[in-house]
Amino acid sequence: MNFASKLALAAVLSLGATALTVAPAAAQKKKDDKNAPAANQLQVSDEFRKPAAAAEAAVKAKDWATAEPQITAAEAAAKNDDEKFFAASMRLQLELGRGNEAGQIAPLQVLVASPRSAPDAVGPYNARLNFLLGKAAASQKKHADVINYMTKARQLGEKNVDIPLMLANSYAATGKNAEAAAEARNAIEFAKSTGQKAPEAWYQFAIPKVTASGNRESTYDWLAYYLKDYPAVKNWRWAIEVLGQGAKGSDRAAKTERIDLYRLRRITNSLADRGDYADYAYAAQSSGLPWEAISVIEEGRKNGKLPTTDPDGNRTYTAAQAGVKSSPPLDALAKQGGAGNADALLAAGDNARALALYDAALAKGGADANEINLHRGIALQRLGRKEEAKAAFQAVKTGPYVNVALLWQVSLDTPPLS
Questions:
Q1: What DSSP assignment string belongs to 374-395?
Q2: pLDDT tens by residue, 333-357
Q3: Number of domain units in the chain
């Protein structure tokens, strides 16, 4: 039973045996001579009784067109608490029946305050009233009122996915990003509890707000949450776009970040098309990593995403082959040591020896520890040493590589795309 049905039932239960069983005035007077009216008997006037009885019959028949003018007449004739209660109950059932949320506010305000409302119905009335007032406030962008009404509605038992959604929007509009993200998660979990899948937009609403807060654990949690629920190429690309803004520069750090993000796309199987492969290969080649450029182009050709006739790919491939021939052998680089040679070994897929050089460079000091730990994590992940890789990514604390390391950490807990 949905909440509207429960509310309508509450209205009926509030009426109970009181539903216009009142005798005509003369008969009532005769009865009053003998004893006092029954406690649950509505005290109504002749003026009120006629439209109210017609309204009751029309509402029971769900004849909303007939009910509307009769209820309006009953409301106009209502003078005492009993008459106002009965008219409001009929109005509420009418507006519920025809799905008019704005029209439910006035009768709910009467019913919440009415001494005639059944005690167990006042709570649902009040919950619904606050919910509808919150929706009305949202339409007017009165965010403080939305937060007030929707919070009360939830506390009083209203269950509707619009509550966390409207709270999320209002918190975001007032600069409360942490609260906005928390309500977005409430909305997602509410949808899941009803057997539905939350729209991707709800995740994408929250992630930039969490990222802006600087809370790394929350950002990781949200990205993993999203990419586990929606493991798709476009979503990895979106996440990389959101967190990889620094990769758009032209300095060395930006170029390194860009290559590491391409590596991330590769390990998650989210390199999408010819452009990804050609751009990745060019970035590697232009950064002095010809081994990686060759490997990427050959992979793209093998899976059909990079045509063998592609002119950009072919130019990069030729240049990379020449670069490998002119470079020292990998064995020589491994013996020389240093973080730069470790980068070359990582690019060549020689992950074990790259890791050894990174460890030595980290122990020696003097190099960028954040960059080294990022690349250590990549090598460890490729070697299947998941927990050590996670620790390495978590060791990237500051600087331009923090978000890249965070994305790599997320990839440890999300399966590669098929």
A1: HHHHHHHHHTT-HHHHHHHHHT
A2: 999 999 999 999 999 999 999 999 9
A3: 3
